[in-house]
Design brief:
The complex is a heterodimer of chains A (107) and B (506). Chain A is mainly α. Helix content of chain A is 58%, strand content 0%. The longest helix of chain A is centred in the N-terminal third of the chain and has 24 residues. Chain B is of the alpha+beta class and 506 residues long. In chain B, the strands form four sheets. In chain B, strands 6, 9, 10, 11, 13, 14 and 15 form a seven-stranded antiparallel beta sheet that branches. In chain B, strands 12-16-17-18-19-20 form a six-stranded mixed beta sheet, sandwiched between helices. The longest helix of chain B has 18 residues.
Chain lengths: 107, 506
Amino acid sequence: MKIKPTKQGRKSRFTPKGRLLSLAIKVLSLAAKNQKIGTNMNYATQELTASLQELTTKSERQPRPIEKTVPASISASDFSFSKEVESFLETTRDYSAKTRGVHVGIY
Amino acid sequence: MSFREATGHRLDWINTGTDQHFSNFLFVDQHYRSNNVLRRIFSLARKQNFQSLLIEEISEADCALLVEENAAIRLRKPSFDKSVIHRLSFFRCVKDQAPAPTDFLGYVIFKSDFFTGEPMPKDYVFEAIVLPSRGVEQNNFIHCSKIYQVKTALGTFAIAGVLYAQQNDLTFVCAHVSLRSALACMLPDADVTYGRLNALAGIDHQNRKIGESRGILPQDIENILNSLGVSFEKIVHEPSKNLDLPTEFQRDLYGYIESGCPALVGFELDEPTPGPNGGPRHLIPVIGHTFNEDTWVPDAQRAYFGGKLSYFPSESWLSSYVVHDDNFGPFYCLPRHFLKKDNFRIIYGLKSQATPFNAVEAEAIGFDFIGAIVKRFPRLGQDWYDRFAVFQRCGLLVLRTALVKKADYLAHLQSSSSRAGEKLEAAHIQKFQNHLPESFWMVEASAPELFASSRRKFGEVLLSAQLPVPKPLNISLLLAARVPGLVMFNQLNNIGSSTFVMGKGV
């Protein structure tokens, strides 16, 4: 990708350093957003409201068909799995294995 | 021969309407020594507006099961003299009016065992099948009922329900009656005898006795289930053994119930001076749940009390579990968080088939698959798909997971339609028919306002219930997915080359 010329006296986000900084900020803000959505219900609700409003505005501008067939496919590589789920499964698996032979008390 | 099939000797048929000034209390006090469980069952019959009661006596000559039961009691306690059995049948019609099939509200087998030297007999409800007082219209869901035929002096009638039973504390205890209720939901015969349960557990009433403070071991319960070929999962929480369940047992419990199977829940009683293994324990069958459409819990739990999930489990709308308790009677509601980990000790979740992972784990995996679909298709330009994607991105989907049979799922697809009345094309249904195994996990995705009010959903992902979870996780578990506008099938089940063919869906 070409680097665009910079304006004098102003540090551009398009310099290699600026681009890295911009990318880092973007990644951090996305991570922060995901973190917020995961843990902050009020934030998630605000995000939902904004996104639904955005959809409504677009829909009003351009009426959409009720049904549409979309020819496409997902390849296996498109799937990524969260560490949290893997870790959760490991925890439940380990505990289940640990307690399989446990017999305590009488009923 | 069971008590349902035995010929009874008719003792009486009486009117029981309140306009006839019939009193449940007086009747149970006068004839059944004020038995509290029988009073509970009569109160359930009252809620069904029962108008008459048929009273029959069953003798050993007419019931092989009674002979077997009495022989076991005699072996266990030689002072056993005799028993008196009454079969009480509840009807909506009045006395002397021929009952229609829908007039039959259920029956009770009330057994009184007499012992030499004891002034009072030991009374208990040997079994009962009665209608619950609330149904789906009142947001009460019992998915594991069976239909029973009951022969009475007024004819043979059908009744749907979950068998209830009370222990006699001699030849069967709380674990036996809980197992009997649960197994009745699972076994083809819809019942099992205590003689069989004891034989499978090695209890012969001589070398090994139960009752009078002697219960059975978890190992016995597992031997019985294994011997009968009933699949189950065990959830254990034993703080005294440093075994602290890392998850909420309510979610596991809900997974079994939503999949149409009962569960056995064991808990420790509060005891001022517990022994090395804690206080005494009790086991009850959990057979259903209630649902509160307007509960505050799902939102509040995540917003105010540090919920870490990125979706709403549908279990959050559960209000109570429906349970039988042999000490108190059938169809009680156990509030979702009443039984805390302080007392909770074990769940045996019965299953229609063995699965390598449970409903809670399936839901976590399904959550990831849904996320991957939305990541791949952030927008389709269709209102409902785009809303689904927005709810997923905001972590506000509702997920509900159940183990389903292919036939039930196909019937569900055939009966489903979009808000515009459009049904899924027959070609897609045929693809599901060809593609799916006989049973699988279904993880449904909905929005809180949809799920709670109309139970409608965006769609679902279907996961294998046969394959173990691969490490690391990959798409081999994903069978198919259906979300607004898209139907996808995992065609090759091969990580390197799997593709999902998409088509029009509802």
